[in-house]
Every structure is written in C-alpha cells, then in structure tokens.
Amino acid sequence: MSKKGPRLGEPASLVRMRVVPIASVMFASALPLMLPLIANSPVLPPLGLLFFLCWQLLRSEMWPVWVGLPLGLWDDMFSGMPFGTAAGLWTLASIAIDYSSQRIYWRGFFHDWAIAALLVAIIQSLAALIAHPHAATGRVLGLVVPQIIISALLVPLFMRLTGKFDNFRLKRR
Amino acid sequence: MARPAHRRPGQSRKAQYSLFVAYVIAVTGAVAGLLLAVLSVVDPVGFAQLRVASQEIAAPIARVTRSVTGSISGIDDRVGAYVNAGSQNRRLRNELAETRRQLVATSALQEENRQLKTLLKLQETDKTAIANGYLLTSTSTSSKRIALLSIGRNLGVTAGQPVRAADGLIGRVLSSGPSVSQVLLLTDVDNIVPVRRARDGLPALAYGRGNGDLDIRTLNIANNPFKPGDILLTSGTGGLYPPNIPVAIVARRQNDGALARPLADPGKVDAVSVLRPYTPDNIDASPAPAPAPAGTP
After folding, report:
1. CA-CA distance, B182 to A167, in Å (whole number)?
2. B210, A83: Cβ pair inside 8 Å?
3. I need a labelling partner for B212 at 20 to 30 A (CA). Which of A5, A135, B56, B192 fits?
C-alpha cells in the first residue's frame, strides 16, 4: 500500500474542505493591517469582502447564510470600521446572494461579476455612511468611489484566485 | 458557471428546521450587527479597546514587513504627483522664490528671538513628549484613517494623547494596547483640530476630508481671509493639542474657507512622538505661547 497518490473514490480531506475558504477570507481581512502601508485614503480594495463574495458566488451552498456574522466580526477587528458594520452588511450580502441564486438559474460569469461589484459598492458605501454619520453624504461617498471602481475591476481576478483555492480545497491528498 | 442552488430541504423536517433557523440567525444577526455598529459609532473609544487583540496579532507581522520593505507609502500620492507634475512644478517654483524671501526675514527674526529668549531665560524644556515610536501600518481598506503606532501602554501611551512628527501634527491616540496603539490621523473625517494662522493668529478649525487633505473653516465666514501658502499651527484651544505645532499649509481657497495639505505626511515620516495632552495639569510643563499679534493682514 503506497501512501502516495489518492485511492480510488477517496474523498478530499474534510478539514481542508472546511478550513480553506474560511482561512482565506480571514487572512485576506487581516492582510491590510500587516502591510507597511500608511494610506491617506482608502486605496486598497476590501480583500476580505471580495473573497467572501467570490466564495459564495462560486459555491452557493458551501456556507450557511449566517456565515457573514463571524467572518464580518473578524473583518471589523482589522478594518477600523465601527464594530458590527461588516457583520451586519456581510450577512445581508449573503442573504442577497442566496436570493439571487434562487432567482437567476445558471448564473454566468458576467452575472457573478455584476452581483459582486454591486454588492461591494453597496456594502462599502453603507459602511462609510455608518462610520461617518456627521459628515456630508456626498463627500463620504466620494471617498469610497475610487475603491469601489478598483474592487469592481478586480472581481474577475479574485474569482480566479478563489477558483485556485477551491481546486486546492477539493484536491485528493 | 455556478451550479444552481439546491437549498430546497425536501420532506425532511430536520432539514427544513435547520434551514429556517439559519435564516433566522442570519436576519437577527444582521440587525444586531448594525445596531452594534451604531453603538460603536456613538462610543468609538470604548469599542476601540476590543481591537487590541487584533492589533497585537497584526503588529508583529507589520513590524517585520516594515523592516523588510520599508514603508510603501503614499501610492495614491505618487500617482497624483505624476498627473499634476506640470502645474505643480510651476507652483513650486513660485513658492520656492517666495519662501527664499521669507527665509531671509525669518532668520533675522530667529536671531532676535534667540537673544530675547536668552534674556528671558526661557529654557526649551521637552517635558511634553512621553515616548517616541513609528507608525507601523494603517487601515488602508476603510474610510477611517487609523494608523497603528509601534508603542503602547508599555511606554505610557494612553487614549487622548496628541501625536506629532518633526514636520507637524499627525493625530491623536484613539486607544492603546499593551505594545501597540491606534492613532486617529489628522485627515480622518471625524478629526477636528483647532488651529490658528501662523502669520496673525487668525483662529480656524481644521476638518479632515478623509483623502489626505484638510478643510479649513474660519469662525467668522463674512470674508475669506486665506491665501495659498498660509501656514496653520495648533492653537491650543480645546485643550487636547498643545499650541504651536505645525498642522497644514493652505493649498487653495474654497467657498467656505480653504483646502489645506498637512505638513507632516504620515506615510513619509520616520519617527513620531507622543505628547502629553494639553490639559491644565500639563500646561505648566510647556512655556506659555506668546499671544499672537492680531489684526495684521
């Protein structure tokens, strides 16, 4: 019996199947705070959110709908936004994706891209508005517009990355 | 192409219930999360303490990445610099010529000032600085401008202390952990600094814009007295920031005040020092600022 190579019909490691998606989102959320980048404006796309949306668009049934709560709280710890913003908004995004996957049967690549871009735009705008209730609405939205555009353009790349992680997740041995 | 979802639980009661419960948890959790967000907007300092753990996780890695790569700072700034290179160059030449003229005048004043200070036996006591550190990293994905400072409670840093660099004011400490602390940068939308114009002591308020610039608004809006090139210093009003720390330079006039750029770019400074807050207990430690002559145009 060689220990190398998968055996016929052997399933992928259950731990890896569970851990890889969650770990990728958590790491992506924490990464910006580990880079030596002192930004004067929101320059980086919300990495954790992009991975979170891509995983849900790629594997609609992998996570329960409430998974945005713990992952969002984790993101709030690192993003600097008020506590609970991402927890609330990410969960609403899960519900929206869940709803859209019931409505749009056989989503295509452009559907996924549009849904992800739209959700990023809504979440980042709402989060900024929640974080700065006293500032002028137009100015706060103006702050996040460049970030939203960058994120929307980066969605296909994150889809690819998520796909690579998914291959690794389901690889046998 | 994503496979269509099959969340239909079928006939199984258990599956139906668990799906239902998942939705209930999601909806209540989302509502609770948003309520929590509103609460933490109301009490940012209390909730900032909760982030201590995450910062202590991130800070060691940020220390390593910073020491390996140096600070990859001001990406947005550099892109902007290329776009505005021509007009900026022209403006800078004009400013340089103007500054040279002022430098001559200033050096004469400095000499005079030195003599006067010797006369008054004013000593430059540096009792206001508590500790020195450097900025590790910042929240570069969110609209809050919060940076992580490399020192915390271990060196006496607590919430509410002003932070400055050699060039000027950086911000104030929002919360401090065992070995790192959060600094709310000057340019955050929620950061308001009382300033005065260096030339004549005209009082004003500096509001962060969140994108690296500041809005300067005077207390009387009858006329707009600002000119490009005006230097703004902290006034010491309000009791948090000590007076006479350089804050910003006016870039251009606006309808209701002026647009200013901070003198100290947090992305470029090496070391920052944490100062004592300017409260009545600490005022004795620093020499009283000379009252600015008012009314000179």
Report:
1. 39
2. no
3. B56
Estimate to the nearest angstrom the gap between the alpha carbon of B75 and the chain centroid: 18
CB spacing of A58 vs B70 below 8 angstroms: no
Tokens found for residue A68: 């945005």
| Chain A hits for B44, Cβ within 8 Å | 82
On chain B, the residues whose CB falls within 8 A of the CB of A61 are 5-7
* CA separation for the pair B129, B271 (Å, rounded): 13
CB atoms within 10 A of CB A39: 28
Chain B nearest C-alpha distance from A90 (Å): 8
The first and second tokens of residue A93, run together, are 């995004």
Which domains, ranges and CATH numbers included, belong to chain B?
Answer: 84-120 (no CATH), 129-283 (2.40.10.340)
**Cβ atoms within 10 Å of B202's Cβ, excluding its own:** 21
CB-CB neighbors (< 8 A) of A39 in chain B: 75-76, 138-140, 145, 267
Q: Which of A45, A61, A134 sits opposite B7 (nearest CB)?
A: A61
pLDDT score of B104? 81
**Binning pLDDT at 50, 70 and 90, where does residue B122 land?**
very low
Q: Which residues of A touch B66 (CB under 8 A)?
A: 36
Q: What is the DSSP letter of B245?
A: -
Residue B159 per-residue DSSP state: T
ipTM rounded to 2 decimals: 0.84
**Are residues A143 and A128 in contact, defined by beta-carbon separation less than 8 angstroms?**
yes
Cβ atoms of A53 and A119 within 8 Å: the answer is yes
pLDDT, tens digit, 9 for 90 and up, residues A103-149: 887 788 899 999 999 999 999 999 999 988 888 888 889 889 999 99
